[in-house]
Amino acid sequence: MSEAAVGQRDRRGYWKPAELLEPPPVYAWPPKPVGVAKWLFGFPGFLWPWNTLYAAIATLTWLFATPDMATMQTLAPGWIGFVLARNLVLMLAVFGAFHLYLHVGRRQGTDYKFTDRWQATNNPTFLFGRQVWDNMVWTIASGLPIWTAWEVVTLWLQANHRLPTASWADHPIWCALLMLFIPVWREAHFYAVHRLIHWPPLYRAVHSLHHKNVDPGPWSGLAMHPVEHLLYFSGVLLHWIVPSNGLHVIFHMQHLAFAPANGHSGFGRLKLGEAEFDSGAYWHYLHHRYFEVNYGSDLVPIDKWVGTFHDGSEAAGEQMNARLKIRSERAKAARKRA
Known about the structure:
The protein has helices at residues 3-6, 33-41, 50-64, 77-104, 131-159, 172-196, 200-205, 226-232, 246-263, 282-290, 302-306, 314-337; strands at residues 7-9, 15-17, 269-272, 275-278. By secondary structure, the chain is mainly α.
């Protein structure tokens, strides 16, 4: 498929898809059952490829790379260190695969890349002047231990029966539905946290670190301030309230950890050999480009409902500018009154 058939690059070097962004058909009224079925089971769709891939990794992790519950009843350095090392290996594998394929090997060049530039290699904004090194430091030095801490504490509490639990053997339907609900909860929680850290004092102190990545790459996804990591991974608190089990916890934590790699890939479509498909990254890329739009995702399109949605069109850009102008005028008026 030619690039022109699915998108175009403007005079400033920005690529955008030919079709404007819109929430999935599950939110359409009147209902569109055929569209919903295609969204659920199509490729790409809700199940394929990302949620199925993350569920498969989580299942293998739970079965073959997680200590048993008896071991996790005690907070001991041995198994905690093992989980930390396991998470590091998985992080390097997932983030490294996206980065090596798209940004080092440049296997699809700049085809479908949101900008015609590559990540900064001599920019004092970033640690060591290199965007990738900066992103890796924050991801591994802060994101990895905080991810692991949330996971370890939650599994320890489950192992000691201090949280409500549900086994697959006794509650298979509930457990299956919860697996489907976790991505939905993840996105709703992400929106709430993301709006919170765009509050000016928190933005300046915390979230501005992530927004140095105007032109993001895979490692930008978890390049955050430690406070943001604490809030971001706190979505796992869902399992402190509703009955679940270790597989749910690991799937949830890995979804939080891995999805940002694709979401910040920097490419609107991915090419694998002769095949190519929508990456799903454009919604969040527009947030990095414009800052004050698309705080969430299409899966839970709160932006669409509250007026912060940008679909990639010029009209959406004009609406955004008008909204920001009104906000600026109100802020000026408030300062004068003070």
